[in-house]
Fold:
Amino acid sequence: MSFPDTVLLDYGSGGKASQRLISELFLKHFDNATLNRLDDAAMLDLSGPLAVSTDSFTVDPLFFPGGDIGSLAIHGTVNDVAMLGARPMYLSCAMIVEEGLPFSTLEAVVRSMAEASRHAGAQIVTGDTKVVPKGAVDKLFINTTGLGLVQTASPPQGDRARPGDAILLTGTMGDHGLTILSQRQGLEFETPVQSDSAALNHMLLDLVESVGEVHVLRDPTRGGLATTLNEIALQSNLGFVIEEKAVPVSDAVRSGCSFLGLDPLYLANEGKAICIVPEERLDAALACLRSHDEGRQACRVGTVTEDHPGKVVLQTPIGGKRLLDMLEGEQLPRIC
Amino acid sequence: MSFPDTVLLDYGSGGKASQRLISELFLKHFDNATLNRLDDAAMLDLSGPLAVSTDSFTVDPLFFPGGDIGSLAIHGTVNDVAMLGARPMYLSCAMIVEEGLPFSTLEAVVRSMAEASRHAGAQIVTGDTKVVPKGAVDKLFINTTGLGLVQTASPPQGDRARPGDAILLTGTMGDHGLTILSQRQGLEFETPVQSDSAALNHMLLDLVESVGEVHVLRDPTRGGLATTLNEIALQSNLGFVIEEKAVPVSDAVRSGCSFLGLDPLYLANEGKAICIVPEERLDAALACLRSHDEGRQACRVGTVTEDHPGKVVLQTPIGGKRLLDMLEGEQLPRIC
Structure:
């Protein structure tokens, strides 16, 4: 490779240096027939209904236990597409790079994106690269937009929860949030924590296809489980009752949270989903989720009710109840 | 509106403050049934073939004569989609906002995006907002990704130029580039310059439909006309001959460029297209382009040839020839 040690402004110029960056870095790793055409737009032979979702990733640090900004940018977007019961097929990738970023850092991120997109089964078909002067952006921000084919006639949506439905989680809460927070603060715990960043699309598609009726799918990212459940309760105009002790939290996250005075229910997750299914499909849903690596610890955590519409109530282990409110402000910026 | 004077980190949290920002700013201005659902992804009933394109906008300053980062983010992406002979229909909008940005600035940009997208006939159906701490980004960056329906069985593409084809421009060169440069340097010219930022999709769709055979459409943005022509010549593996005096340049841009020692053929444009059509469709193409406001000054500037494949040759007014090379490095960062 004929690149200098750091990314220069020239690489975002649209001129020869840009061309080299595109062909020797992006095409090398993202290689596919659609992207390789290098037209202003990618042409896709895709017939809907389609799900489309966009996300910008500004996570700090760029690399963390369990992932990096590149894999996170793929997982975050394919997961959002999958939440509508869609198969993520195509991705765009737009990078904003700070002048002076080590070239090896950029290449490591690109390689990680390539691997994560292959694993998710989605192609990166179009992109954009801007290089901005030192100080105009902190190191590297990535936007991905995903496009998927909806696989069911009645896709899961936030307003489709029904009274009596079972509320499931696909795994433990708080891993990503606590990992980023501890990296940023330079904290080390006895049991190391690791981000749960993962592509859920294969598992969720299996769920939608094998269980049939899946009313709601949503990933509890920024704001955590508490905030996301409140969003769904509001959209569906129903109440949710959650058993606090049923919510899976790893020992490492539990002890880290109690050390820092944090509630894992408000911490971000990047490889977990909330699934709301009719009570009679509960066993089938759990069996399906648990048959996938990403869903081994899937479990039921609560029930949808007609009481207290728009509110989430937590049943505490000592028999009490408390309102589980949305996160109000910012717990930790640049978590994703 | 119940917002403070500046954007706080809380507005990117995913919590209550984010919800207010979304409902009271974005939904208010971008209002449409798909976006209003607020699911993780937007569902679109769209059947291909599709054109999809992504672009991040980092322009500095945010507001400039002839436009702002918001309208530019719409125009840039709908134009890229239109270059494949597609009708841009849906857009995503992902904002990265610096903590402390005046709220009135954000609202002005959002209002401008709403107006530009209405004019272009494309809906903003999904989005994302990140607020990052002061210093992690310079004011405001926007990513838009566009989705369009390809309107022709033989869409224009960069490798479809043919020997003998006529090369057309839809208008003057260099307006956007010189405008941003003069704003950044605090220069004032006798005749003020203004960005040409505009949505070309209605005109180009008319061209594709009425002229039938349009071989290549591309907008000469970063790197300007010279760089973009070189890209197409390489993709088509043919030579281009351009008559220098036929290339339209406004008096204001010409005098500004000669004052600064710049070549308008390397300056960015944000509301112009290169159109390559068979010689026999030239008159029809010019008549169509000139019937639109954005194409009043459309003219032929050159011819595709089998000589010197992959190269662009400029015929100078005094009868000479010179190779018009790609821009090598960065002329002006953050032009778009």
Q: What stands out?
A: Chain A has a mean pLDDT of 95. Chain A touches chain B through 86 residues (CB under 8 Å).
